[in-house]
Amino acid sequence: MRKSLLTALLITVAYAFAFTNGASAQGKGHGGGGGGGRGASPSGVGVDRGLGRSSDASMGRSDEGRGNASGRSDGRSDAGLERARLASQNLHDADNDLQRHPHIASDMHVNANDLRAGYQAALATNPNLTFGNYVAATRLAQNLGGRNPAITRDAILAGLANGDSIGKTLRNLGLNDEEAKAEKKRVERQIKDSRNNH
After folding, report:
1. Helical H runs in the chain?
2. CA-CA-CA-CA torsion sign (112, 114, 120, 122)
3. What angle do CA 188, 191, 194 make, to 5 degrees?
4. How many Cα atoms are found within 13 Å in the side-chain-facing hemisphere of 12?
5. Euclidean distance between CA atoms 113 and 95, whole angstroms
6. DSSP state, 44?
7. For residue 155, what are the contacts with CB-CB under 8 A and spacing of at least 6?
8. Three-class SS of residue 5?
């Protein structure tokens, strides 16, 4: 009787232990499979796939927008850089000219530093302006300004910045063809003499 009760008790405990382990394993398997399998994997794939589509669509628009903006900006930027480069080169040439030919300034009774500063300021408006044309405009204003008040250095520089020649600018400021030609030759001769006067 005692032996049979003990056997029955052992069988019951063994069964209970086996059932508990089986349920526990089944719970872990379901939880791992559900959470790590169906729950995580499809969700991860879905998110990645969604981000990919969203990113592709967004990048398409943003790349185009950046391309357009960059193109427009580069156009302005390149033009600005070219203007700055040209102005810098012209100013460098003017420095060399003044060093080699100091009489360019002294023959006009102006300080070389003031002449250079005035030229640098003019380059900000017209980077294509050569130092020779700036000196010519200064000379012409000195030669003609007394009897022709409209002929100033600024007025001549404005004409040059507009794309006009010195002759046409002088005509626009009131000289006739013969006077414009004569004054242009006179100034060219004066500048040449200053360059040759070492």
Report:
1. 2-31, 40-100, 103-106, 112-125, 131-144, 153-161, 166-172, 177-196
2. negative
3. 150
4. 6
5. 10
6. H
7. 169, 173
8. helix
DSSP, res 152: -
What is the C-alpha separation between 55 and 152, in angstroms, rounded? 62
Name the token pair of 91: 């100013």
Residue carrying the six token digits 């012209």: 90
Q: Are 75 and 68 in contact (CB under 8 A)?
A: no
Say whether pTM exceeds 0.70.
no
Q: How far apart are CA 190 and CA 139, in angstroms?
A: 8
| pLDDT at 27 (0 to 100) | 46
DSSP letter for 39, please. Answer: I
HEC states along 122-143?
Answer: HHHHCCCCCHHHHHHHHHHHHH
What is the sign, positive or negative, of the torsion defined by CA atoms of 68, 72, 77, 82? positive
Burial degree of 160 (CB within 10 A; 0-12, 13-18, 19+): buried
The pair of three-digit structure tokens given for residue 117, joined into one six-digit string: 């500063």
For the stretch 2-18, pLDDT in tens is 455 555 555 654 555 45
Look at residue 147 and tell me whether its pLDDT is greater than 70.
Answer: yes
Name the nearest CA neighbour of 114 among 134, 89, 130: 134
